[in-house]
């Protein structure tokens, strides 16, 4: 298992797909800052660091999902998984190595992007306006936790689907749907004007989603405590891994 995990992690670090995802996210971050600075300059307004540190979290679900798709669909298409099985590796170990590696991907990408965004924010802006040091640290930690959960979920889905090209559509489609739902939930629970108008079962469901579903926490603005984020992310990881292991262990590998 350890040898298999070492090989997978080594391949990830040398993967062009991961390098492109990291580069794309950093270009998006810097581009957003530059464009925003230009626009605000014409209105004689200032940009604050608060706006920059939430840039990566707002797109992290797409970046993490894309990274796992690029890595693990290739595992199937290049026959790597089949070769692992032919060399004697157990299916369970192959699956566990994949999800652990995907968690590392999410951690690495989140850490790199958030460190760069924080440094960029402190250098190019007037500093933080609303966020305190503890809130910045909590936002950083929350994004890492939910990114890991989303990476494991996405990887489990790919392993279940057998690396088919449809995984690209379904994987990114799920991320897009969850993003829309998260925006809708946040809009209803935290309206810009007035108080929340939800009641009864709808309020309960919206609150549960906002509190425990990892996709709802990908905006860089923590609203719940560490316990809620950990519980929701851990629950997502366990469900994805249990279903993934059951299906993958029974699936025919071509």
Describe this entry's structure for a reader.
The protein starts with a helix and ends with a helix. By secondary structure, it is mainly α. It has helices at about 1-15, 15-40, 50-55, 55-75, 80-85, 90-125, 135-160, 165-190, 200-210, 225-250. The chain is globular and about 65 Å long.
* Alpha-carbon distance between the two ends: 22 Å
Largest sheet, strands/sense/barrel: none
Mean pLDDT: 84
Principal-axes geometry comes out as globular
Helix segment tally: 10
State the secondary-structure class.
Answer: mainly alpha
Q: Please write the string of helix (H) and strand (E) elements.
A: HHHHHHHHHH
Q: Which range best describes the helical content: under 10%, 10-25%, 25-40%, 40-55%, 55-70% or over 70%? A: over 70%
What's the short story on this structure?
With 254 residues, this protein is an all-alpha fold. 78% of the residues lie in helices and 0% in strands.
Task: Supply the key terms.
about 0% strand, mainly alpha, about 250 residues
Indicate the topology.
Blueprint: H1 2-13, H2 16-42, H3 49-53, H4 55-77, H5 80-86, H6 91-124, H7 133-161, H8 166-189, H9 200-212, H10 226-250
């Amino acid at each position: 298992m350890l040898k298999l995990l070492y090989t997978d992690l080594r391949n990830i670090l040398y993967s062009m797909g991961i390098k492109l995802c990291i580069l794309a996210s950093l270009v998006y971050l810097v581009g957003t800052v530059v464009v925003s600075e230009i626009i605000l300059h014409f209105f004689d307004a200032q940009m604050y660091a608060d706006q920059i540190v939430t840039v990566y979290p707002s797109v992290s679900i797409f970046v993490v999902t894309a990274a796992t798709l690029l890595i693990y669909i290739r595992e199937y298409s290049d026959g790597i998984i089949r070769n692992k099985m032919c060399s004697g590796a157990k299916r369970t170990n192959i699956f566990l190595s994949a999800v652990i590696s995907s968690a590392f991907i999410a951690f690495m990408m989140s850490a790199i992007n958030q460190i760069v965004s924080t440094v960029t924010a402190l250098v190019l802006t007037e500093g933080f306006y609303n966020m305190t040091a503890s809130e910045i640290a909590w936002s950083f930690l929350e994004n890492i936790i939910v990114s890991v959960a989303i990476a494991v979920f996405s990887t489990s889905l790919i392993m279940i689907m057998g690396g088919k090209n449809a995984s690209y559509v379904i994987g990114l489609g799920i991320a897009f749907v969850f993003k829309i739902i998260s925006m809708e939930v946040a809009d209803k629970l935290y309206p810009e004007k007035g108080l929340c108008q939800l009641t009864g079962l709808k309020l309960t469901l919206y609150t549960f989603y906002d509190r425990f579903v990892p996709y709802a926490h990908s905006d860089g603005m923590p609203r719940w405590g560490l316990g809620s984020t950990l519980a929701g992310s851990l629950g997502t990881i366990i469900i994805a891994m249990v279903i993934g292991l059951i299906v993958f262990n029974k699936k025919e590998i071509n």
